[in-house]
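Subject: mismatched residue count in predicted assembly?

I count 131 residues in my input, but I want to confirm that the predicted structure covers every chain. Input:
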Amino acid sequence: MNDGDSKPTSKLDVGRVQMATHFGRRHLDEWIAAAERAWADKDRDERIAAQKCRWCFYARGRGGRIVGHGFTTRACASCEAPQTYSSTAANPLCMPCAQRLGLCVECCADIDLTDRRKLELVSKPKRKRRQ
Ligand SMILES: [Zn+2]
Ligand SMILES: [Zn+2]
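Triage response: the counts match. Full output below for your records.
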């Protein structure tokens, strides 16, 4: 683990306050905009194509994740097939399993964040989608 990124605290001056204000405002605006998109599920098609739940797609997906460099391999939590990712932010599920189970590829939640009683998709009638 690399936790050595924290910079030494510089002395407080108005420039620092202005900078913090600028970024705080910008991040807040982005966060609110993202929350609005998430609430309305505005990019649903894109989200389903990415096989992600609303939380991961809207909240975590946009820069919220700490992504490292290099390649990483991780076994899928369902089929145990080794998956290779181009960063250290490896997903717990492979795409075919996530699609088969109707789960978020990134966090294993139900893709629509609805309550699940079973792991396998049973109750939902499968909508036929032409690829
Ligand atoms: Zn799998
Ligand atoms: Zn998710």
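The helical segments are 14-40, 44-50, 54-60, 95-101. Marking this ticket as 'not a bug'.
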